[in-house]
Amino acid sequence: MPAARPYRDPVTAIAWETLDPALPWLPDDLVSLAGLPEWAALSPAERRRLSQAEFLAMADLGLWLESHLLGHLGRAAPRSFAGGARGYAMELEELREEAGHSLMFLKLFDNASATLPRIRPRRPLLAAAFARLVPTGSGLFWAAVLIGETVAVELTRRIRHSPALPRAVGEIAALHLADEVRHVALARRRLAETLPARPHPLAGALLRPLTRQFLAACFHPAPALYRTAGLARPEALACAVRRNPARAALARACLAPASRFLARRGLEIESGG
Ligand SMILES: [Fe+2]
Ligand SMILES: [Fe+2]
Description:
Blueprint: H1 10-13, H2 37-40, H3 44-82, H4 85-112, H5 125-133, H6 139-160, H7 167-194, H8 201-219, H9 223-228, H10 234-242, H11 245-264
Helix pairs in contact: 3-4, 4-7, 5-8, 6-7, 6-8, 6-11
One fe (ii) ion binds at residues 66, 98, 101, 176, 180.
């Protein structure tokens, strides 16, 4: 039996009482309006509230994606078990960590409820269909996991290293980042094992719209989010963000490590349709 990694329960590891509503919960350059005249026009209180709404929306999207991943890892458990103790232990650790993240996000919503109502961002519905249909443990499955977890790592890294956020936000980011870096490494290892030398062209054709919709769900909030944050003209703000070049550049930068890794293995996830 391989030695299990020491485990810290995120629910008890975070100093929840430090989730200060008087501070922003995201660095400015991660907020969707950053770089636009609409951002410059907001008051400091409006900027702070928007950063809090967007942080909660990110957590909610993470919670939703993790529910699909937990389902797959759970279904794959009997096969992983039969494949040997080492691989089984790695997948059990990932399952335990994802369950911990999801409990951490639920606890975050509890602690944030006095500051903002629960944010329910748009769901990437192609990802939902894909999660239902894709065989667990296939190359396509691990490619989708790699895309989701790489974006999570890149966003979390930027939050982690940002000063002036509440200590609880930094702790959530640090904990999630440490785990997700390992999960990305596992996804890459599984892809090296499962992806054929020449992936079928259909694989890229499936992953490209999936990736586009996932990035839109992450980086282009729906008008409801701006409404929840108390901003005027929420539809116009959502529209401006879809045309915000700084936002598009951030999305590309967060996807880039996964995109490069998959391109080297014959899977183009960024261009075409
Ligand atoms: Fe996670
Ligand atoms: Fe993960």
